[in-house]
Amino acid sequence: MRSIMEGYPVPMPDKVLYEARDGVAWITLNRPDVHNAIDLEMRDALWALLDAAEADDDVGVVVFRGAGDAAFSAGADISEFGTAPSYTGARRSRQERDLWGRVLHFAKPTIAAIHGYALGAGCELSLLCDFRIAAEDARIGLPEAKLGYIPTAGGTQTLQRTIGPGRALDMLLTAEPVSAQTALDYGLVHRVVPATQLDAEAEALARRLLSQPAAALQAARRALVEGADLPLATAIRLESHLRQRF
Question: Residue 173, Cβ neighbours under 10 Å: how many?
């Protein structure tokens, strides 16, 4: 772990595990005692690990997963809420190191292997990935409204872009998680497998992606992600521009 991060100022905590093997980087949220809640130290570690994985020519795909049996991630660590020295300081920190934007614009394909609870920031992290594979026990949702606030890692936007505004409003306003099967019906996840097969299914998908030309995958992903926020004619010009590279 630490050899990967040589030159990075962020220490790597045991809260996030990293393993790269045969072209696939596995990033594991490793706080099973608190359902892999994401704290500020984990955010910094995830940022640095994504930088390392993107710079590593031997890594072609990144898979996110959660340690333990209970959760992919139950969301942000609420014990840290209100602990920043100031509101403006906390906001500045988020802007300078936008982890969620980093995942969205990551150059290589990403997969979320979801089991158990994927709530709040855990759900949002998965929505920013290219592929979501869910175990049959997965429960996915954005419960922030129930707690008196709204999602802050892009969930109000990524959810509606993934499943449509009607279903997104249902999930956001009722604040109730959906089952793996409902998530599949909604198009929120790409496939559902038994929990014992989750890692194997993620690896099989990663291997399929690795078999494709990396430059083509990156260009197609960029065209889709960036084009989604552009007028159609402009998005088609972006596609044409990217096509000229081949």
Answer: 11
Question: Is residue 224 one of the residues assigned to a domain?
Answer: yes
Same domain, 32 and 71: yes
Question: Is 5 in contact with 48 (CB distance < 8 Å)?
Answer: yes
Tell me, yes or no, whether 47 and 104 share the same domain.
yes
On the 0-12 / 13-18 / 19+ scale of CB atoms within 10 A, 64 is buried
Task: Give pLDDT tens digits along the chain (246 positions).
Answer: 434 444 444 445 689 999 999 999 999 999 999 999 999 889 999 999 999 999 999 999 999 999 999 999 999 887 765 554 434 444 444 555 689 999 999 999 999 999 999 999 999 999 999 999 999 999 999 999 998 989 989 999 999 999 999 999 999 999 999 999 999 999 999 999 999 999 999 999 999 999 999 999 999 999 998 998 899 999 999 999 998 877
Contact 27, 39 (CB under 8 A): no
What residues are labeled active site? 124, 144
Q: What's the burial of 79, exposed, middle or buried (CB within 10 Å: 0-12/13-18/19+)?
A: exposed
| 0.85 surpassed by pTM | yes
How many domains does the structure of the chain reveal? Answer: 2
Range of the domain at 237: 213-246
